[in-house]
Amino acid sequence: MTECIHCSTPLEKSQVESGFCCTGCEFVHGLIHEEGLQNFYDLKQEERLSPLNDQPFQEYDFSWLGEEVELLDKDVGDGGRCEMDLSLQGVSCVGCIWLVERLFTRHSGSLSCDISPATGAMRLAWKAGQFQMLDFAHELQKFGYIIGRPRDASHKNEELKKLGHKLGICGAFALNAMGFSLPRYLGMPADFMFAGIFELITMLSATLAMLVGGSWFIQRAVQSLRAGILHMDTPIALGVSLAYLGSIAGWLWKHEGLLYFDFVAIFIFLMLGGRWLQTAAVERNRNRLLEQTPVPRSLVRVPEGDAIALVDLKSGDRYALPAGQTTPVSSMMAEGEADFSLEWINGEPDPCHHQTGTHVPAGAIKLSQASITLTAEENWSNSMLAQLLREGESSTRSPVLEKILKIYLTVVLILGFGGGLAWLLSGADFPTAMQVTISVFVISCPCALGVALPLADDMASSAMRSLGVFIRKPAFWSRIRQIKSIFFDKTGTLTLDLPELTETASLENLNEESARVLATLCAKSRHPLSRSLLKHLGLKGQRLIDPNLEIHEVPGLGSWLSGGSGVRWSLGKCGWGGMDETQVTATSAGCELRRNGEPVATFTFQECLRPDTAETIASLAGKNVFILSGDQNERVQAISNSLGVATEHVHAGLSPGDKARLVGEIDPDHALFLGDGANDSLAFDAANMSGAVAGRGLLESKSDFYFLSSGLRFLPQMFTLADRHALAVRSVFIFSLIYNFAAVAVCLWGLMNPLLAAILMPLSSLVSLTLAASILSKNKCLTKAGATSIAITPSPTYDIT
Predict the structure, then answer these.
(1) 485 with 672: CB under 8 angstroms?
(2) Rounded-to-integer distance, Cα 137 and Cα 426, Å
(3) SS3 484
(4) SS3 of 404, please?
(5) Kind and range of the H or E element at 206?
C-alpha cells in the first residue's frame, strides 16, 4: 500500500505519482529537508500523522498569545524565567516532540519545552523579554503544529482520571489477594499459624477492591436500571457483588469452598482495565484537536472599548469583529464594509460583500482585514448560532445488547438459585448448596467479554486512525452497523475545502518579481482564492513572501501593494484595474494579478470533489445516499450527476432546519450525516450518527467521529470494519457461551472450587483476547480503493479581497 511520504496516510490513486496526500504534507516535507531536520522521519518511523491539508497556509490569529506573553514578561521582569501552559495540536509521536523542541531551542531566550504526546499539553519556559513567542507560534504552524490555549481542567475527562486511579489501586489489591491466596492453593494447612492472617489480608484486599473499583460498576448499574437500560456494567456488578457476599459468608463460616476473594479482586482489576482502555481511546481522539471555536469568546464594545462576554451580548450592542471571526448574532453593518463567507450558513462558497446598512446573518465569517462596527439585532441566547452550537443528545443504547443481557441475567439467576435449591432439596447442607450457587455466579461473570470487547473496540478504532478517522463516542461500532442511509453535505464535505486552480501554467510562467508579489498579496488574505493560490505556490511561495511590503485591502475588489519605483500591483476580481476603489462588475470568473493596471496573469478555479468520491459513492451501493445542501441547485445537480446519485435523493437550497427536517422524515433511526458547517448542526442532532470534517472547530465536538483525510474512501472501509468487529464480538460471545455452559455444568455438579475458578478465569480471558485479536488483525489487509479527482463546473465569479 502506497503511503504519504510525510504523514504515512494511505494514498489515493491520483496521489501516488506525487507521493503526498495533500499540498500541506508536501510543503512541510520540503521545509523539514530545507531546514536540515530530516531526523524527524527517523524518529517518526512507522507512526502515522494527521494529513495537513492547507493548515500550513492558513492565517491564524495568535494575538491572544502575544497579549498573555506580554503580561507575563512584565510581571517577571527582563531576563526572568517565564512559564506558560498551552495546548499543541498535531503532536502524536516522539518525532513530533523532537521537532518542536528543536524549533523551540533555535529561538533566543528559550529555556525548556515539555510536551505530552497523549494529551497535547505543552509547558514552555523562556527568559522574559528575550523570546519571541509569536514568531515561534507562526513557525510551528508552518510545520503543521498549532498552539492553543490550555484545555480547561473542567473540560477534561474526569471519568478517565478516576478510572486510572482506581485501576492502579485495584491492581495492588489484586496482587495482594492473589499472593496471599496462593499458599492455600498450594496446600497450606488450615491450622498453619499464619493461615488466618493470610485469609484476613485476602479478605481486606477484596473488600477494598470492592469499595474502590466494584462500587464504580455497582453505581453505574444502579443508574442504568433506574433509567430502564441494561449494559455490560449490570452483569459485572451482579457477579462481583454475589461473589463477594458469598466469600464473606465462607470466611465467617470457615468454608473454603466459598472463598473467592482473590477472584473478586482480580476480576475488578481486569474489568477496570478493559473500561480504561475504551475510555482512553475515545479521550485520545477527543484531545486530537484543540478546543477551538470560530465564535469569539468575547467582543469589543464600540466605542467604549471594553469587552462584552458572548453570553452578555444583547440586541442593540455595537461591537467590532476581527478578521477570521464569526458574527455571533444577526447584526446590522453600522460602519465600514467587508467581505464575508456564508458557507457555514447556506453552503455557498462565494464570499459576499457587505456595506454600511446591510444585514449580516449570524454565522457569517469575516474575511476582510478592514475595521467594521456591527450592531446586534438579537441576544446571543436567541441567535441561530447559539442554537446550532448546543450539543444534541446522541443515543448510545444498543437494543440488541440489552435484549441479550436481559436473557443472560435471567438464565444466570435461574441457574444459580435453582442449582442451589436443587442441592438443598437433594439433602445437601446449606453451605454446600450456597457453594453451588456462588460458583455459578462467579464463573458466569462476563470476564472474557469485559476484556475482549474493549480490545476489539481499540483495535478497530486504531485501524480507522490509520485512515485519518477518529472515533469520539463509545458504542460506535455497534451503532454504525444500523446505518442504512448516508446524508452528505456538499460544500466542504463532498468537495474540497478550497477551489482548485484549473491549470498551473499561469503560476509557473510568473517571473520571480511577479511570484514574490503574488505570494505577499495572498499571505495576509483569508479569501478562498488567495488561500488556494498560496497553497499551490507551496514552499517556493512561502520563501518569496516579503513581510516588509504593506498590503492595502479594498473590500469587494481585492488588494494592492506598492512594489517600489512607483509600481502598483493588485490581485482582485477580473476587470478591476487595481488603480482605484471604484466598484466594478467582474468580467469573468476567477481573479487577476495586475501591474500598474495591466494584466500579468489570470487565474481560474473550479470546484472539485474530494479524491475517490465517485468510487466511494459507488461502493456504498447497499446504502441509500442523499445530498442535502444549502448551495444553488445548479451546482448541487452538477455534483450529483457526477456521482450518479438519484435526482430524488438530491435537495438544494436548504436551510439548517430544512436539512434536519428531511433527515427526520426520511430515515432518522438509520441515518449517518456527514457535514462541516454550522448549517449542518441541526441535521447532526436529527440523525442517528454523525461525522464531521475536522479543522472547522464547530461540529467535531458533537460528532460521533471526525476525519482528517483528504478523501472519503474510509466510508466503505468503516462499514467493512464494523462487520469484522461484529464478527469478532460474535465469536467471543459464542466462545463465552460455550465456556459458560461447560463451566456452569461443572458448578451444578458441585465440582467447582476457588482454585479451578482462578485457573479458568484467566484462561477464558486469554482465549477471548486471542480470538478478537486474530480476527481484527486482518484490518491491515483491507483493500485500498482507487482515487479519482473529478472536476465540476467552473466556479462562478469570486470577489477577492
Answers:
(1) yes
(2) 79
(3) coil
(4) helix
(5) helix 195-209
How far is Cα 695 from Cα 693, in angstroms, rounded to an integer?
7
Q: Report which of residues 674 and 250 the model is more confident about.
A: 674
Cis peptide before 303 (omega within 30 of 0): yes
d(CA 258, CA 753): 8
Q: Which domains does the chain have, with CATH numbers?
A: 55-150 (3.30.70.100), 154-287+395-444 (no CATH), 298-389 (2.70.150.10), 482-495+610-710 (3.40.50.1000), 503-603 (3.40.1110.10)
Mean of all residue pLDDT scores within the chain: 84
At 790, is the pLDDT very low, low, confident or very high (cuts 50, 70, 90)?
A: very low
Q: How far apart are CA 489 and CA 509, in angstroms?
A: 37
Phi, psi of 159 (to 5 degrees): -60, -40
**Strand-pair category, 650-651 with 671-675:** unpaired
- pLDDT tier, 591 (very low <50, low <70, confident <90, very high otherwise): very high
Question: Burial letters for 393-405: b for 16+ Cβ neighbours within 10 Å, e otherwise?
Answer: ebeebbeebbeeb
Per-residue pLDDT, 388: 67
CB atoms closer than 10 angstroms to residue 96: 23
Cell 469520539, located at residue: 472
Instruction: Give residue 695's pLDDT.
Output: 67
Q: In what order do the strands lie in the sheet with 650-651?
A: 469-471, 705-707, 689-693, 671-675, 485-488, 624-628, 650-651
625/610 Cα distance (integer angstroms): 16
Amino acid, res. 660? A
Planar angle of CA 39, 42, 43, nearest 5 degrees: 90
pLDDT band at 289, cuts 50/70/90?
low
Handedness of CA 369, 365, 536, 48 (dihedral sign): positive
Displacement of CA 120 from its chain's centroid (Å): 13
How many alpha carbons lie under 13 Å from residue 223 in its C-beta half-sphere?
8
HSE, side-chain direction, 13 A CA sphere, residue 259? 24
How many Cα atoms within 13 Å fall on the side-chain side of residue 344?
28
Rounded CA-CA distance 563/569 in Å is 7
Asked whether 56 and 142 are in contact (CB, 8 A), the reply is yes
Residue owning grid cell 440489552: 402
What are the distances in angstroms from CA 81 to CA 110, 129, 371? 10, 10, 37
The set of long-range contacts for 395-402, using a CB threshold of 8 Å and a minimum separation of 24, is 395/479, 395/688, 396/473, 396/474, 396/475, 396/479, 397/229, 397/475, 398/231, 398/475, 398/478, 398/479, 400/478, 401/230, 401/231, 401/232, 401/478, 402/229, 402/230, 402/231
Whether the CB-CB separation of 408 and 234 falls below 8 Å is answered with no
